[in-house]
Design a protein that fits this description.
The chain is an alpha/beta fold. It folds into three domains: 212 residues, HUPs (Rossmann fold, 3-Layer(aba) Sandwich), CATH 3.40.50; 78 residues, Tyrosyl-Transfer RNA Synthetase (Orthogonal Bundle), CATH 1.10.240; 76 residues, RNA-binding S4 domain (Structural Genomics Hypothetical 15.5 Kd Protein In mrcA-pckA Intergenic Region, Chain A, Roll). It contains 17 helices and 13 strands. The chain has a six-stranded mixed beta sheet with strand order 1-6-5-2-3-4, with helices on both faces. A five-stranded mixed beta sheet has the order 7-13-12-9-10. α11 runs antiparallel to α14 and α16 packs across α17. The longest helix has 17 residues.
């Protein structure tokens, strides 16, 4: 894959080091860049979930920066390693995935990753192509290059071992196979989250043992979620999904705490380094306008994942909803049965579940009692679980919370 004309080394390093946690070792990266030829940047991902969020996209954004600097990137879909499950940062063994689950997730992952990476300059490979055919002799040769004592020094393994928590033998194989990926693709730099540093350094060791120039390990920080405390995760419900609707994505980004604005500019946006440094400086000297900066950030990120101009549309929808207290124009429609029950009422709690606005009838009751349910913009009184049919005529808009709407048809 051909690379672009490379910038001077110092200019490249300014972009590459922006937002990174560790580059091990930095002087080796500089020497690789000084050769003046495009480097091969590797990122391995195990498709354990079909949906990605902004936290998953952090290393992808850095990969895109490498592409824009003229380097080649290799995205490894771990359809081989995913059958084991990465133990990094885990306090228990990951449940195994079937090959069918892995393949289905992989297709969705690539589609979403290409919203960040340049498809024309991205090499996509699957490590199952070289891992699954390994025979016993080859596996034994690979595993002989690693020391169990050193693997047990890993924080996650060490903690589980110390606390008497089970460690399955196959989990020890994971860093071996990830390291072998680097050998196969001849990586110059391997990227990962900061919890991946052991696996990345294992790749350096194996490459060196096999007479190759070792890769440089580059780690990115874990993105803090919209709650401002925990890492972004679907399980914590503090995530911004790459496939979220534009208006929902915009609203979630407007909800982040002010302190997170510089991090999101640096790790999630497409703004140039100079703009990001201006944002950092404004927060340090107290001149920042967090609300204005969040609006600009949200427009940028919505444009990135949904196309140019979508950010402004989402911003207008946000203003209609939150500033003017109006109902958006593009409310999804929901076909429903409004036939009254024996008491001449419609069970609204069940209707909210069927419309996908809440997860359960108990959740619906709770939202109604909290005053979080509106009909045509009017808040329902507590205990309004059953309502008169005349309140729910076709064209009626139901709202739960700030961003969930349906129009009855």
């Amino acid at each position: 894959m051909e690379g672009r004309a490379l910038l001077p080394v110092e200019e490249q390093l300014k972009v590459i080091t922006s937002g990174t946690m560790q580059i091990v070792p930095l002087d080796e990266l500089k020497r690789k860049l000084e050769k003046g030829t495009p480097l091969n940047i590797k990122l391995g991902v195990d498709p354990t979930s079909p949906d990605l969020h902004l936290g998953h996209a952090v290393p992808l954004r850095k990969m895109r920066q490498f592409q824009d600097l003229g380097h080649n990137v290799t995205l490894i879909i771990g359809n081989g390693t995913a059958l084991i499950g990465d133990p990094s940062g885990r306090d228990s063994t990951r449940p195994p995935l079937t090959e069918e689950q892995v393949e289905a997730n992989a297709q969705t992952y690539v589609e979403q990753a290409m919203k960040v990476l340049d498809p024309e300059r991205t090499r996509i490979v699957h490590n199952g192509d070289w891992l699954k055919p390994l025979d016993l002799a080859q596996m034994l040769k690979l595993m002989s290059q690693f020391n169990v004592a050193r693997i047990l020094e890993r924080e996650d393994f060490h903690n589980r071992y110390t606390n008497g928590l089970p460690i399955s033998l196959h989990e020890f194989i994971y860093p071996v196979l990830q390291a072998y990926d680097s050998v196969v693709v001849k990586a110059d730099v391997e990227m990962g989250g900061n919890d991946q540093i052991f696996n990345l350094l294992a790749g350096r060791d194996l490459m060196r043992a096999m007479g190759m120039e070792p890769q440089v390990a580059l780690t990115m920080p874990l993105l803090v979620g919209t709650d401002g405390t925990k890492k972004m995760s679907k399980s914590y419900k503090n995530y911004v999904g790459l496939t979220d609707e534009p208006a929902d994505m915009f609203g979630k980004l407007m909800s982040i705490t002010d302190e997170l604005v510089p991090m999101y500019y640096r790790l999630c946006s497409t703004f140039p380094i100079e703009k990001i440094e201006e944002v950092d400086a404004s927060f340090k000297d107290g001149t920042a306008d967090p609300y204005k900066l969040k609006r600009s950030l949200a427009r940028n990120i919505v444009d990135l994942y949904h196309g140019a101009g979508e950010g402004e549309k989402a911003e207008r929808a946000f203003d209609d909803l939150f500033k003017k207290h109006e109902i958006p124009d593009d409310v999804p429609e929901f076909a429903c049965d409004l036939t009254p029950n024996d008491e001449g009422k419609v069970f609204l709690a069940k209707l909210l579940v069927e419309a996908g606005l809440v997860k359960s009838t108990s959740d619906a009751r709770r939202m109604i009692d909290q005053g979080s349910v509106k009909v045509n913009g009017e808040k329902l009184a507590p205990k309004s679980y059953n309502v008169d049919p005349g309140l729910l005529v076709p064209g009626t808009v139901l709202q739960v919370g700030k961003r969930r709407f349906v129009k009855l048809v």
